[in-house]
Amino acid sequence: MALTTGQKFIQLFTGRSDAHGLGIGRIEKHPNNPIPVELYQLHLKGEGSGLGIFPLRDDGTVLFAAIDLDEPDFETAKLLSDMLPGVTWIERSRSGNAHVWAFFSEPVEGWIPRGIMKFALDAIGRPEVEVFPKQDRLLEGMVGNYINLPLHGDDRPIIKVPESDGATGYEYPRAEWIEEAYETRNDPEEWRVRALALGIQPPEERPTSGREQGDLGFLHDCAMSIYKNREENPVVEGHRNAVYFHFTTQLLNYKEMTEPEARELLHELNEAADPPAPEREVDRIFNNARSGGFTGTGCDDPLMAPYVLPTCPIAHPEKKA
User: Fold this and answer.
1) Three-state DSSP class for residue 91
2) How many C-alpha atoms does 91 have within 13 Å on its Cβ side?
3) Three-state DSSP string of 188-217
4) Which of 3, 105, 159, 303 has a beta carbon 3.0–4.6 Å from 7's, enabling a disulfide?
5) Whole-angstrom Cα distance, residue 73 to residue 149?
6) Given this model, what pLDDT does residue 318 score?
7) What phi and psi values does residue 166 have, to the nearest 5 degrees?
8) Which of 75, 138, 83 shows the shortest CA–CA distance to 116?
9) C-alpha separations of 109 from 88, 124, 202, 256, 296 in Å
10) d(CA 226, CA 44)
């Protein structure tokens, strides 16, 4: 049976099923239920605050990716669109700013479109611009970051930017665009080939040493293990200060981790601790780790021993290949 236009819209913007965002900046989690179809329908009708979707799923794949210019620079949006492989689209957001969207016919590793989009932004001197997904992979329990969807009623149209200038140009009729975007979804292989040609590496193959905090191209495995096992192996009193400090440093060493995200993860780790430390103390430890610019993992600290991986080459250099 052929899909309806509404069903194709859902296929285009399929991401995490256990949470969604609202246009007012709030997140709603529903771990045991998928996102209701009605929310997509209300979004298209322009009712409510709008729907935001988290593109990055637990397996590290996405079905869509986007560049959020956060300004009405449609000439730059057109340039970026032309620099990306395959078919991409430009949205004029509710605030009048430009977004560039790419959709995929099959799940693709999130680091591939993310890496290509960031490469394009670096090439035009705009490395500060946000890309969704914002991470290459997630810690267990994280949901990442959502992006508001286009076509919220009469707001957020998909547009065609004229070649001659940066004006917003022609607005695609809703149904026409959904049909065309669905039929022209990108082949992930084309993006994989481009990523390899640009020298973009999977997270696990990126350099393991950085000279400044925030240089690492991947998140240390012990940080992921500490967060993942926080309920089964809670941080206990006497270890808290050391574990929180080194955990924070590991998070901040990862160049794709923002400070607010790192702080939130530390507080979530503390919530599972036995017993939790006062929030002010947690913030003090975080600020010390951040301001010091530390680059080590701290896995060789004896107080970290109950929490690091047994395969960690820093904690157990004798096991290093």
Assistant:
1) strand
2) 27
3) HHHHHHHHHHCCCCCHHHCCCCCCCCCCEC
4) 3
5) 19
6) 63
7) -95, 20
8) 83
9) 18, 24, 9, 16, 28
10) 41
Tokens, residue 139? 């810690």
Q: pLDDT tens, 115-155?
A: 999 999 999 999 889 999 988 888 777 888 999 999 999 99
The torsion defined by the Cα of 58, 64, 65 and 71, in degrees rounded to 10, comes to: -130
**CA proximity to 77, closest of 156, 159, 187:** 159
Assigned token pair, 31: 């771990």
pTM of the model: 0.75
Give residue 183's Cα distance to chain centre: 25
211 band by pLDDT with thresholds 50, 70 and 90: very low
The DSSP secondary structure of 69-80, one letter per residue, reads: --S--HHHHHHH
141 within 8 A of 130, measured Cβ to Cβ:
no
Distance CA 262, CA 284 (A): 14
For the stretch 97-130, what's the b/e string if a residue is b when 16 or more beta carbons lie within 10 angstroms of its beta carbon? bbbbbbbbbeebbbbbbbbbbbbbbeeeebeebb
CA-nearest of 64, 60, 50 to 20 is: 50
How far is Cα 115 from Cα 119, in angstroms, rounded to an integer?
Answer: 6
Q: Once rounded to an integer, what is the mean pLDDT over residues 59-74?
A: 94
pLDDT in tens, 25-38: 889 988 888 999 99
249: nearest Cα among 203, 280, 295: 295
